[in-house]
Amino acid sequence: QLQLVESGGGLVHPGGSLRLSCLASGFSLDDYAIGWFRQAPGKEREGVSAISSMDDDAYYADSVKGRFTISRDNAKNTVYLQMSSLKPEDTAVYYCAAGVLATMAEHKYDYWGQGTQVTVSS
């Protein structure tokens, strides 16, 4: 059974940091591009970051560039999203997804996790 499980969300003060993890089971993450998406209340889901399967090329939305870093550890079958200098507007449910291409287009992804809540508030 192919499954993605996100973890690492929580409540953090503005300016703080969190590291999200996306653990795969039932398949090898190194065969897939991985994307991180988020959905804030009342808003559509948006792409945050993506990492390619072959060369680990990384892509970021302008809103998180310079603050978030995506990486993968194939030995642990896990992709991470390190988030720093967090802002209240980063509050959302964060999802990871696996697909063929590293893209911010969510319809390009085949497998999705259930999401983890990130809340940035003082």
Outline the fold blueprint.
Layout: E1 3-7, E2 10-12, E3 18-25, E4 33-39, E5 46-51, E6 58-60, E7 68-73, E8 78-83, E9 92-99, E10 109-112, E11 116-120
Parallel strand pairs: 2-11
Antiparallel strand pairs: 1-3, 3-8, 4-5, 4-9, 5-6, 7-8, 9-10, 9-11
Task: Give me a quick take on this structure.
This protein has no helices and 11 strands. With 122 residues, it is mostly beta strands. Strands 2, 4, 5, 6, 9, 10 and 11 form a 7-stranded mixed sheet that branches.
Report the biggest beta sheet as strand number plus sense, adding barrel if it closes.
Answer: 7 strands, mixed
Q: Separation of termini?
A: 40 Å
Over all CA atoms, what is the radius of gyration? Answer: 13 Å
Q: What is the residue-averaged pLDDT?
A: 96
> What overall geometry do the principal axes of the alpha carbons give?
globular
How many β-strands, per DSSP? 11
Characteristic terms for this protein:
122 residues, mainly beta, seven-stranded mixed beta sheet, four-stranded antiparallel beta sheet, globular
Commentary on this structure:
The model has no long low-confidence stretch (mean pLDDT 96). Helix content is 0%, strand content 50%. A hairpin with a 4-residue loop joins strand 7 and strand 8. The protein contains no helices and 11 strands. It is globular, with a radius of gyration of 13 Å. The strands form 2 sheets. Strands 2, 4, 5, 6, 9, 10 and 11 form a 7-stranded mixed sheet that branches. It has 122 residues and is mostly beta strands.
